[in-house]
Amino acid sequence: MLLRAAVTALVCLLSLTSVIFVARLYRRDNASSSEWIPSFSAKQVEPCPDSLDWLLPFDLTYPIKYARREIIVNLTADVERLSVTERDGPLFPDFQSVDLANNAQVQLKGCKDPLILDVPEHGKRPVDASHIIFGISTTLARLDESTPSLLRWLPNTNAKLFVIAIKDDEVPDDSKDRYHPADSKEMSDLQSRMRNLGLDVTIVHPLSKRHWFSQRYFSLVRVMYEHRQPATEWISLIDDDTFFLSMPSLVERLSEFDPHEQYYVGALSEDWWSVTRYGLMGFGGAGVFVSIALAEIVNSKYKDCQERSHTSAGDIRLRECITWHTSTKLTNIIDLHQIDIHNDLSGIYESGRLPLSLHHWKGGGPDGKGYPLHTMHLVADICGDCFLQRWQFGSDMLLVNGFSIATYPKGGVKQLDLEKMEETWDHPSVVEGSVNTNGVDHSLGPTRPKLDLQTEKIQYRLLDSAVVDGAVRQVYFRKATNGDQDSVLELLWRHQPDHGPEHEPKPQKH
Question: What is the DSSP-derived secondary structure letter of residue 239?
Fold first, then answer.
């Protein structure tokens, strides 16, 4: 009897092992079928935590309304990023009232099991940008402040960065010099720190003490061209607050153009008034890309363009030089964004589009605190190009990953034309006689009217994002209105457990 029982147990164990193996093998060969992921793989983390002590540093007013959900990311080759991906059922359980004023221990009820989301694996593939040299003209202090954002897109791409750095522009009017030079030792120290963080950066002094900002900006062409390598195909002039959201997508877009032909690639301003005033040029903050063939010509005419131009804007000086000495016209890429519109930019971030670049994110916004892309973008370490991707849950909730969660009490999501961008920003200056009446049709259109944030759209904005035990925790927040409680929604994004630690995001360094 004992022998028969032992044999029976062994057979059962072997059968169970075979079922698990077949299920896992099927999932890897047919990744789009998420139901084949064994349920225990998605439940390794308890859906109802017993402590919310991580909320204490946010200095919230308690009690608050709180809900959470863990998301397991399934990177899938045959899944495309859609404008909106619809999922049945709610994203969160019902809100619960939580009071951490005296005790961070909680007893949550009704927590939901982790949610599995299929996302394209495109944005997670390695990228080689060794054919691109980037250039920035800025102050040493601003460069130091920009390091966290540069760390989000530049490391591990093989791209090089050259920076012309000064201390500041505040010199007397009667001075022969146009700036206060940066301290050479401080430049060397910052360069070393940035290189130790994985940034292939070289910091240099301006080419002339007589150069104003526009001349220093234009001189980046000479600096980058003289440091070109045999593999160099593009030089790119950017600002210290230019942010590239997906280097694989950027490299892919540039591959559409032959760098051995003369190409001047960039984006017009989103503001039609600025376009009519400054011309059909690549606005610098969006990122301007000059093919190596065109860079050779601009570099050869460097002295003439520096002396002939009298503009105070570097990107205009570049456009002037190209116009004077070539027949090359701007190749406009609308996914590069200068961001010359102001106040609440929710409409851009919530559009479902994945911009190639964003600019002017350090300041502005409805609260004046800007849009901290270096933390908003952390979720890309888990799911690649799913940053700012939209998911609809049920009939009335829309998640814009890394920016906001919103519900729509008047008619739900179906009453919205989500292919149109919501005009949440301040209306740009009017161009008299122009048919571009809202000032952005050429760049952001089509658009739809702004919704009321009290009655038509209940928006929870990203408050913070952080790496926690190999996952990325997002905290979305809405301030109380009409005597209600403040609301906090937590999302915890994880890889599938079998992806292993090599896929886990690393905490940011600075």
Answer: -
Query: How far from the centroid of its chain's Cα atoms is residue 450's Cα?
Result: 23
**In angstroms, rounded to a whole number, what is the distance separating the alpha carbons of residues 509 and 153?**
14
Q: List phi, psi (to 5°) of 191.
A: -60, -45
Instruction: List the one residue out of 3, 6, 13, 28 whose CA is nearest residue 496.
Output: 28
Tokens read off for 34: 């998420």
Look up residue 190 and give its two tokens: 């910052």
Q: How far apart are CA 130 and CA 5, in angstroms?
A: 64
Measured between alpha carbons, how far is residue 459 from residues 82, 350, 414, 478 in Å? 22, 11, 17, 7
Give 400-454 pLDDT, tens digit per residue.
Answer: 999 999 999 998 999 999 999 999 999 988 898 888 889 999 999 999 999 999 9
186: three-class secondary structure by DSSP:
helix
Contact in structure between 379 and 403 (CB atoms under 8 Å): no
Beta bridge partners of 492: 70, 473
* CB atoms inside a 10 Å sphere around CB 373: 21
The C-alpha atoms of residue 32 and residue 113 are separated, in whole angstroms, by 20
Eight-class DSSP state of 55: G
Query: What is the rounded radius of gyration, in angstroms, for the C-alpha atoms of the chain?
Result: 26
Q: What is the pTM of this model?
A: 0.86
Sign of torsion over alpha carbons 309, 310, 311, 312: positive
